[in-house]
Specification:
single chain, 45% helix, 172 residues, alpha+beta, five-stranded mixed beta sheet, globular
Amino acid sequence: MLVGYDPSWPQQFERIAAELRTLGDTEWTIEHIGSTAVPGMRAKPIIDLAVRVRDSDDVEAHSAALEAAGWRLGSAVRTHPVMILEADGVRSAIAHFFTAGEWDAVHQRLLRDWLLAHPEDADRYSHAKCDAVAAAARGISTYNAAKTPVIHEIVDRARAARGLAPVPVYDK
């Protein structure tokens, strides 16, 4: 379910990021990604975070503390570790963990930066998300599959602007 932009999302991100740092490593870089990071964009009311860790063992080393605080491993994403925070069965946050070596090419970060700098593409993506909700409701496609072509095109342009080669962006 998409909702209108909530101006409290940045503060929610800051609170969740501060908690993650106490459970993990104070040196982790944590950024707000996803549609809730783009002012004015309709979104699912779930805060997405990109967390830069030293290496793949870094998440494992902190998983017990994260799980004790309510985070759980798991998602359909297979390209990087993901932990989900839920309360009473309602998802409130998703933390995506990337190694330092991956950080500069993370497509979620590139997409966010591009949408912040290109309002016409933010508007186009917002419309694609609404169309994806409608397609999913009609059983034509899943929400993620329906919005992926627009994401892919925008991420390819964002990557090209940084001198990076295009890559597949479907992450579900």
